[in-house]
Structure formats: C-alpha cells, structure tokens
Write a structure and sequence with these properties.
seven-stranded mixed beta sheet, Methyltransferase, methyltransferase activity, 737 residues, SAM-dependent_MTases_sf, 17 helices, transmembrane helix, alpha/beta
Length: 737
C-alpha cells in the first residue's frame, strides 16, 4: 500500500516538473560536451581562440593588374598557382572588409593627429586608412608585393632608414648621373646633404606640441612603391577637364548635375592616378614676373565662362592672345589705390607693410587688392570659394599671386587660430549673419587678437545691417569705421577683434558662449566650425599675447612663446646656405622664370625665409601628421596651410613653377598606399609644364622616384647622393598620353 502511494506521488511530480528536469539535463550534457571538446581538441579549433591581427593578409596580386579608372596599368610577373589562389581569397576578405567602411577621403592616423577628434564628421573619421582605396565594381587595388619573411626584413630595414637617426657621414661624396654611374660631385651639393636628419626631426619634435595629431600605433601599409610595376598613364575624364581639382570638383563627366563643386571637401574614393589634360589649345610659356602682373596668356586660363565674364568687365581686356590687366584698374570705382588710402584714413593704426603683413582676402574678384598690397610689402593670400565658377583664383595664380581654393560652409579653414593680421571681404557674396553667424565665428578664430576685419559691399538692406550689427556686438568686435565712399560707391566697415577676455565677461547674454578649455582652436583638418568663442591668450608664454614685429624684422624674430629659438635660428642659417650655395646656382634652374613656389613639407619656414630676397612667394605646407609648426611660419610673416598629401591639394592644375619636397616621401610610408605614385601624380597636376621639382630624401626613395618621373617624360636634370641621402632635380615637360 505504501509503495503504491509513493508511486502515485512521483507520477504527479513528474507531470508537474518534467519539463524543468529535461531542460536541466540538456544544459548539463551541453556543458559536459564543451568541456570535453576544449580539453581533447587541437587549439586551432578551440572556441576561445580568436584572431588578434590581420596583418599577415597580403594585398591581392594579379598577374596583369589593371586599374582602369585611375589611369595606371601595372604589369606583374606571373605568380605560382598556389600563391595566386591564396591571394585571391585574401583579396576577397579585404574587399569585403573595405566595403563595410565608410566612403570618403578622411585624414589618416599616424603619429600625432588632431586632438579635436570629435570635430571630424561621420564618414571622415581619422585613422580610416583604407577608405581612400575602397574598390569600385570591376576595379582592382594597386597590387602590392606578396608578404614574405625577406620582405618583412626589408621593410624593417627601410623603417630604420626612414625613422632612425643618421650616422655621422664622412667627407666622401658621389654624384650619380642618369645611368647610375658615379661622378665626382660638387662640394656645395655635398654640403647641402650634411644636415643631420636626426637634428631635423629633433627640431620638428621640439617645435611645439602638434595640434593636428596625437601619438597612435602605426599600422604598416606595405612598401612605398612596387619595384616590378610598369606605369602606363592615361588622362582624367572628368567634368571640369583641364581645370580638375580632385577634392573640390565633382568627378562625374556624365549626366546633368546642377552642382559644379562639392558642398564640402570630398575626395574620390580611390586615389587619383590619372593625368589632368592640358587646355584645349595647349599651355604656353607663362609670362614672367613682374610683367605677368599686367598681362597673361589667355589660353593658359581658358574657361567656358571666362569669355563672357571678360566682356562684362573693365579691369580685364582681351588683347590678342593675352588678357591685359591695367594697373590700378579694379572692379571698384575710383581704383584700388583710392580704396586702400581710404582705409588708412579711416583707421590710421592700419599701416600696410609694417604692422599689417599677412592678410587673407576672402573671395576673389580682380586680384587688384592683392596686387596693390604686394607693392606695400603685404603678403595677401586669396581664398577662392567653391561657388566661383569663373575660376578667378586661377587668374590670380597665373599672374603670380598667392591663392588657394576651399569650400567655406560647415568646416574650419585649413589654417591655425589667430594668425592673420587682417581679413578682407569685398563683394564676396557671403551671408555672414546666416546660421547664427557661424562663418563669422570662423573668421574670429583665424584672426589675430587685435586684428582687423575689413568688409566692403554695396548698400545692404536694413535687415542685413541690423543682423550684422547684432552679431558683431555679440562677439565683442569693435567697429572702428563705418563709411560710405562716394567715389567707389560702396560701404566700408572696419572691425577689430578684442585683445583680452575681459570684454567677454561683460556681455549680458553669453551667446555665443566661450569654448571649453579642451577645445583645440588649431584643430582645422576636417574639423567642424564651433559655435563658440575661443578664449584670447593672456600669459606671455602663450601665442597671441603680443603683436609681431614689423616687417622685415619679423622674419628673423622669434618671440618668447617659441621654444628652442637657437635651433630655429640654426635651421634658418642652414637653409640660407643650401639655397644660396646650391639651389640658386648648382641646379641649372632659371630663377627668372620662377614665381609660384611650394614647400611641400615645411617645418619652420626656413626654406621660404631663405628665398625672401628672391622675386618669389612660397606656400608653406605643414602635413597634418607632422608637428604643428604652421603658427611659427605665420609669426615670421609668411603664409602656409595644413594638408594631407594622401589627398589632392586645393589648387588648380598648373599653379606652381617650383615644388620643394624635403624628406616628404619617406615620412608617408605608414599613411597611405603607394605614396610615391600618389604624390608624383599630384605634383604633375600642380606643376606647370617647364616647372621644376627639387626633392631631398633617402637614396632608396629617389631611385624608384626617378623611374616614375621618367615614365611621365620628366627630364632628370640632376641626381646627387652622399651616403644614404640624395637630391633629385627634375623638370616637367608638356607631355601627355
């Protein structure tokens, strides 16, 4: 009886709790299975084993690689079937990985990047090294060498050559001719290579904290060049044709697009490796300076909209094969000289060429403002806006005046904070009061404390006047002059930025607010405009507390906020010796034909300062991955800009007469793929036919570089090597495929 009763109770319990018992049994069996599997199975099948790196995956290699859209065709030796199939699989993995990345052309991570990382818009994040090389349908990536142990050793050795300190060199010297034979070189060029690279890097590191970058672990992107590649170039097929600016213009050449240029800087998905064609009627020898101030070759600046524009203006006249630009002729009535004199009368503290040296001219009309200031020892940089469909900045460059092209919408301009002595806007068609005065806040950022903002325009409406008055009052700009000039028939307003923070505290409404202390005012590469006011420096050790010395004393004066002034002085003397003893006399360059010069990797402006007595102007480019020395360059009364050489520069084709690159290529090894090819194509775009390039770098860099230049039909005028350092001087021809 008791046994039967117990059986009935057990049966009822099983019916009630049978599901839980079964679930518990399944869980226990599963855990036992995992335990037995992890103990007795090989480690490569273990569920806890994860892959920590994908660096051993090599780039896809094709026997006959072909990049059709980029304009470069690579012919490779056939690989073994095993390696080839393995490469295809690895290429598919990388392709799938690349497709998941955001499209665009962001700045890349290396060394010191912008501290203000949050300013980078989505899709432009720093550190995305593969975005520039995302493959399109039917394309192949630029082939790289298959990874091997010997290649890894070679890369490590190359890294030591690039980044390590240089050993003391002996007095022996060698000059390499075009055949690679050793010829006795001249002493001046040998001395030009005596600069200890370790010392140069030390100057860079000690120049100040980089505001464009922060230390990050580098990821190797492979060799600088492909020694087995064969280059077969083709012309770019773009909407803007011979005036193509890759990161500004829209690339599509088909379809009816309403927009001619990007709203913001936006580079192609893959690196531009095609050659920009010459104008329809060719490109003639530019008119030499200073005659180019008053006339230029018409065909060199040919533009579909230019002919109609010339007919409607009186400051430019078509005269046969030339465009004539008479002196003192301007879009302003009464002439440019009257305009400048009226400004000095309204504000006597504005002394052109003395306390006012560096000026940004926002928008470009006739360049008469820049031309007239140049005679007063004022270096004015023209900022061509994206909406200028006549391409007037190109006329300024052809005439020999500094100019760059950049959108001005939601991102900061590629300049540091507080560097311009004055800003000028004459009929630049910018609604400064729109969007909460965002663009005027950007002008406030780059304007030096105590600097001047000169605004001239036709008579505005009462609503615009009131909005502008309210906006300038909110940022504490003091209006020094507001005058209607009867001769020129324009209204001229001159504002001054405050020199201290005291006035900011007196505002009733703190709108716009002061920026947070951790907001970096110098973060300018792909950084959004902030709707706030940066505090004005107050201590003597900070940049911007004192106005620079007058020109030309300013060039050789280093204020207290600059560290290691002795090293900067030594660097200046070094570049003077190189320029005077080698560049001006030992390169075979006709400097009477040189006007527009670019230093592609400027440090402290030593190269530009050494050329200050020549009839040239120099655009100093500070790479975004390098220490931020651009404020020092502006403090010396020179001009410059931030840029990432993995992307195209914001200027027209055929803009420069001479490009100078000092150890630029070897510093880009871990920033973009095949930097030698990418930069050479960009140099070919920026340089005029007959223009020159002076390149100083490692010998192992110059050897493949010479081969690429020869494939472009450049003439190699000089190659010189001493130990591991070398100089290459080449001249671009007018060849096009």
């Amino acid at each position: 009886m008791a046994i039967a009763k117990f059986g009935r109770l057990a049966k009822r319990s099983y019916k009630s709790y049978g599901f839980c018992v079964k679930l518990t049994a399944v869980v226990i069996l599963g855990l036992c299975f995992v335990f037995v599997w992890s103990v007795f199975s090989p480690s490569k099948f273990s569920v806890t084993s994860q892959r920590e790196t994908f660096d051993d995956f090599a780039e896809p290699v094709s026997a006959n690689g072909r990049v059709t859209d980029s304009g470069v065709h690579f012919n490779k030796n056939e690989l073994k079937n095993g390696k080839e199939s393995s490469s295809e699989k690895k290429g598919q993995i990388l392709e799938e990985k690349d497709k998941k990345r955001v499209k665009g052309s962001p700045p890349l991570k290396s060394g010191n990047m912008h501290k203000d990382q949050k300013n980078v818009p989505k899709g432009k994040k720093q550190g995305d090294k593969s975005t520039r090389h995302t493959k399109q349908a039917g394309e192949q990536k630029i082939p790289e060498k298959e990874g091997s142990e010997s290649d890894d050793l070679q890369e490590e050795k190359q890294d030591e050559d690039v980044n390590g300190s240089e050993e003391d060199t002996e007095n022996g010297e060698a000059n390499f001719n075009e055949e690679g034979e050793v010829v006795q070189g001249d002493t001046d060029l040998a001395n030009a290579l005596d600069l200890d690279e370790e010392g140069v890097e030390k100057v860079e590191d000690d120049s100040g904290d980089s505001t464009n970058s922060k230390k990050n672990k580098k990821k190797k992107l492979g060799p600088l060049f492909d020694p087995k590649a064969h280059y077969s170039w083709k012309l770019c097929s773009t909407r803007s044709k011979h005036n193509y600016i890759p990161c500004i213009d829209i690339e599509s050449s088909s379809g009816k697009l309403q927009s001619y240029r990007h709203h913001e800087r936006s580079c192609p998905k893959t690196s531009v490796l095609c050659l920009v064609p010459l104008p329809h009627d060719g490109y003639g020898t530019p008119v030499k300076w200073p005659e180019s101030k008053v006339k230029i070759l018409y065909k060199n600046v040919a533009h579909p909209k230019l002919a109609a524009f010339v007919k409607s203006q009186n400051w430019v006249v078509e005269a046969g094969e030339y465009l004539a630009l008479p002196e003192n002729q301007s879009a302003l009535k009464g002439g440019i000289q009257h305009y400048l004199e009226s400004i000095e009368e309204m504000v006597p503290d504005i002394e052109w060429g003395n306390n006012i040296r560096v000026v940004l001219d926002v928008g470009c009309t006739d360049s008469s403002f820049v031309a007239s200031l140049l005679e007063k020892n004022v270096l004015a940089l023209t900022l061509g806006l994206k909406d200028d469909l006549v391409d007037l900045p190109q006329l300024a460059l052809e005439r020999g005046f500094p100019a760059v092209v950049s959108p001005l919408a939601t991102r900061r301009l590629p300049f540091p904070s507080g560097v311009f002595d004055a800003l000028h806007c004459s009929e630049c068609s910018i609604s400064w009061h729109s969007n909460g005065g965002r663009l005027l806040l950007e002008m406030n950022r780059i304007l030096r404390p105590g600097g001047y903002f000169i605004l001239s325009s036709k008579h505005d409406s009462i609503e615009i006047e009131e909005a502008m008055s309210k906006l300038t009052a909110s940022i504490c700009w003091n209006i020094l002059a507001d005058k209607s000039d009867e001769v020129s028939d324009i209204d001229v307003k001159i504002y001054q930025k405050p020199e201290s923070n005291d006035i900011y505290e007196l505002r009733r409404k703190k709108v716009p607010p002061l920026c947070k202390e951790n907001e970096n005012p110098d973060a300018a590469w792909y950084a959004s405009i902030k709707n706030c006011l940066h505090s004005i420096p107050s201590s003597v050790e900070e940049r911007g507390t004192e106005w620079p010395e007058g020109w030309p004393k300013r060039l050789e004066t280093f204020p207290d906020w600059i560290n290691n002034r002795e090293k900067l002085i030594a660097e200046s003397e070094h570049w003077k010796a190189i320029v005077n003893n080698s560049y001006l006399t030992g390169m075979g360059i006709d400097w009477s034909s040189i006007r527009n010069v670019m230093d592609m990797k400027a440090i402290n402006g030593g190269f530009a300062a050494a050329l200050s007595q020549q009839k040239v102007w120099v655009m100093n480019v500070v790479p975004v991955h390098a220490p931020d020395t651009l404020p020092i360059i502006y403090e010396r009364g020179l001009i410059g800009i931030y840029h990432d050489w993995c992307e195209s520069f914001g200027s027209y084709p055929r803009s420069y007469d001479l490009l100078h690159a000092d150890h630029l290529f070897s510093r880009l090894k871990n920033r973009c793929k095949h930097p030698i090819v990418v930069i050479v194509v960009e140099m070919d775009r920026m340089l005029r036919p007959g223009g020159w390039a002076i390149i100083r770098d490692k010998v192992e860099i110059l050897d493949p570089l010479e081969g690429i230049l020869r494939s472009l039909h450049w003439e190699i005028r000089l190659t010189f090597g001493k130990d591991r350092e070398g100089i290459l001087c080449a001249q671009k021809t007018g060849w096009r495929p």
